[in-house]
Design a protein that fits this description.
The structure holds 2 protein chains of 2 kinds. Chain A is built from 13 helices and no strands. Chain A has helices at 2-28, 35-40, 46-56, 62-74, 87-122, 127-141, 144-158, 174-208, 211-218, 223-254, 256-261, 267-276, 280-308. The longest helix of chain A has 36 residues, at 87-122. The radius of gyration of chain A is 24 Å and the shape is globular. Chain A starts with a helix and ends in a 6-residue tail after the last helix. Chain B is built from 12 helices and 4 strands, in the order H-H-H-E-E-H-H-H-E-E-H-H-H-H-H-H. By secondary structure, chain B is mostly helical. The chains are: A mainly alpha, B mainly alpha. At the A-B interface, helix 1, helix 6, helix 7, helix 8 and helix 10 of A face helix 5, helix 6, helix 10, helix 11 and helix 12 of B.
Chain lengths: 314, 317
């Protein structure tokens, strides 16, 4: 266990360094990307630009700039180039919307993915399985913002069933929070439900042919118990592995498209906005946040594997 | 009994899979329609993808109303599928946009395949330090969220273009999103390829080639490469389908195809801005894109089943 924790911590540090350097380099490569010009404003004299450059440290060598920026991030003092506000407080403001979206959608896609996957495996080749296969295919073949736009138009505008986008904080009005998030949750989940049910179906079909499942059947364990305790429990491992990565990606701004089409001002939207303003610091923080959650959650998932499959040790 | 090669066998299996062939045909039809875009524009719609008809009238109705709402499908030659807010013919733009989307997806897939073969095969063959460096590089691209990486690269390149050694790209070139998408998907192909090469290099026929004194390059080309071709073929339709989806996503966020070039992604994104007054602007390119991607995905599944029924190739998002 100690080795596991140590190894994971090391790889976390490595990933954070690599990701931040990559982001840094992407922005260094912009030919017209001199942040001093944008910070100084349109009417700045060359002297003012020079002052800004000096004040923000853009005249220093690149590794020096990188070190200063990292220092600012970890002391919580990092300021965005274009808006000149604290990046961490901006992210703190946007995080509730993203977390609400991610957690709700995660619950939906994981539970429906598992239910559909199991039912597909049990009815393999028959009508229900085929219908779910077709649905899964539509799910993985449709861009989320197109699904979102159709939902907004038909469910929101035409039939007036749901509010037309936007985010209401949970603390302000729980019911409004819920109704505003229902459509985004399902729009985001459709793709994952398709993928997860397919993965679970195929592993479940393999597991059902394993010797220990046959042994359990032979010793007279009830069908339901065989399915849930023996077959499903072991088939969940690849699904859990996927869930860790996908969920982390959504928390870290991977749901930009969903956030954008439904007008939820979350971390993804903040990332997109900062990219358009060519504003490096927020993007650095967000990509590092994503990498952090990815590594953290994949470690958590490894712990969960050991719990699901007694043969696995940490 | 007459012997039959693995590819002839696969082709025979694929030919029997009616569903896969039918959906493959859907994709081919979409491609053909897009290729014939100039013919449609010139002979049927009598307009061009960027010609504005703001003040024209169809059947006594304004193409774009005083309130700025474009006309819906007329089911006539011109404005068959309606107009957009600039008075441009949606059907014509749909076909020209499809050319751009398909071109980007095709080039991106080519880039992915070439880079993945080079990286995956050399990492798997040389192992050790080469593998260490290449695999960590792949992990890095893998760990970076697809959309954020795409948008970051797309926006920065759209501003300044790309100047990398002998390569020069303009910011609004179609090659910019193609290169970005191509790079993003490299790990998805290179990683499984590396795994396959790792086991292939231990096989007897590779040992034999090594004993014969063949160079590493020759072994990789003539001994290893032919054995991974079927994996690559299986990946092609999947990568093309995902590249089309990614292009749409990037264009929706403004980091993909740049004005005035149409693409399915930019058309959907323009359409979403006019919801609810002109829903056809979203539905038309959206359905075309979905039809194309579904066709590719089902055909791709058929190809996979035909080549290697036990393979579990798939793309994660």
């Amino acid at each position: 266990m100690a080795r596991f924790v140590l190894y994971r911590t090391f790889s976390l540090v490595g990933v954070l360094i690599a990701i931040s350097i990559l982001t840094f380099l992407i922005f260094q490569a912009i030919p017209s990307g001199d942040p001093a010009l944008r910070l100084a404003g349109r009417l700045a004299t060359p002297q003012q630009v020079q002052d800004v450059r000096k004040q923000w440290g853009f005249d220093k060598p690149i590794y020096d700039q990188y070190a200063t920026t990292m220092d600012k991030i970890f002391t919580g003092k990092v300021i965005s180039y274009t808006q000149q506000v604290n990046v961490l407080s901006e992210i703190k403001r946007d995080l509730p919307a993203t977390l609400s979206l991610a957690i709700g959608a995660g619950v939906i896609w994981l539970s429906l993915g598992i239910v559909f996957g199991v039912v597909s495996a049990l009815t393999a080749g028959r009508f229900f399985d085929r219908a779910l296969t077709a649905l899964a295919l539509v799910g993985v073949s449709t861009p989320v913002f197109f699904i979102g736009a159709m939902m907004l138009y038909y469910l929101g505008y035409k039939w007036n069933l749901f509010p037309l986008g936007g985010y209401v904080p949970l603390t302000k009005d729980p019911w409004q929070w819920f109704t505003h998030l229902l459509m985004p949750w399902f729009a985001l989940s459709i793709l994952f439900i398709g993928v997860y049910s397919r993965v679970l179906r195929s592993t479940m079909l393999d597991t059902l042919n394993e010797d220990y499942v046959r042994a359990a059947k032979a010793k007279g364990v009830t069908r339901r118990k065989v399915l849930i305790h023996h077959a499903l429990r072991n088939s969940l491992i690849p699904v859990i592995a996927l869930f860790g990565l996908d969920f982390a990606a959504v928390i870290g701004g991977g749901a930009i498209l969903t956030e954008s089409v439904f007008g939820l001002h979350g971390v993804g939207q903040y990332a997109a906005d900062s990219i358009f303003r060519l504003d490096l610091p927020p993007l650095l923080v967000i990509t590092m946040l994503t990498a952090f959650t990815v590594v953290l959650l994949s470690a958590l998932m490894d712990v969960l594997y050991a719990f699901l499959d007694p043969r696995i040790r940490l | 009994m007459e012997g039959i090669g693995p590819y002839a066998l696969a082709w025979r299996r694929l030919r029997r899979n009616r569903t896969a062939l039918a959906f493959g045909a859907v994709f081919v039809i979409v491609v053909l329609m897009c290729l014939l875009a100039p013919v449609y524009a010139h002979d049927i719609a009598h307009t061009t993808p960027s010609a504005n008809h703001l003040t024209d009238k169809v059947d006594g109705k304004d193409v774009v109303s005083v309130a700025g709402i474009p006309i819906g499908p007329t089911w006539h030659g011109r404005f068959f599928l309606g107009a957009d807010s600039n008075g441009r013919d949606v059907a014509v733009r749909l076909l020209y946009g499809g050319r751009n989307s398909l071109f980007i997806a095709g080039v991106a897939t080519l880039i992915t395949m070439i880079l993945a073969i080079v990286i995956g095969v050399s990492a798997g063959y040389f192992r050790g330090a080469v593998d260490g460096v290449l695999s960590r590089g792949l992990d890095l691209v893998w760990a970076y969220p697809v959309v954020i990486l795409g948008v970051a690269l797309g926006t920065t390149l759209a501003v300044g273009g790309l100047n990398f050694g002998p390569f020069h790209l303009k910011g609004n070139s179609l090659m910019v999103p193609a290169v970005i998408i191509g790079v993003i998907y490299v790990p998805y192909v290179a990683k499984p390829l590396r795994g396959q090469v790792l086991t292939l290099r231990e096989r007897e026929f590779v040992d034999a080639a090594r004993t014969l004194g063949l160079s590493s390059l020759k072994i990789m080309l003539s001994e290893i490469a032919p054995n991974v071709v079927s994996t690559l073929i299986v990946f092609i339709p999947l990568i093309v389908a995902n590249a089309i989806l990614t292009e749409a996503g990037l264009s929706y966020l403004g980091a993909g195809v740049q004005d005035p070039n149409p693409s399915w992604g930019t058309m959907i994104s323009d359409g979403i801005r006019l919801i609810p007054s002109a829903i056809h602007l979203t539905i038309v390119p959206g359905l075309m894109l979905v039809a194309c991607v579904i066709g590719l995905n089902i055909f791709g599944d058929g190809v996979r089943d035909a080549l290697d029924p036990r393979a579990r190739v798939r793309i994660e998002h």
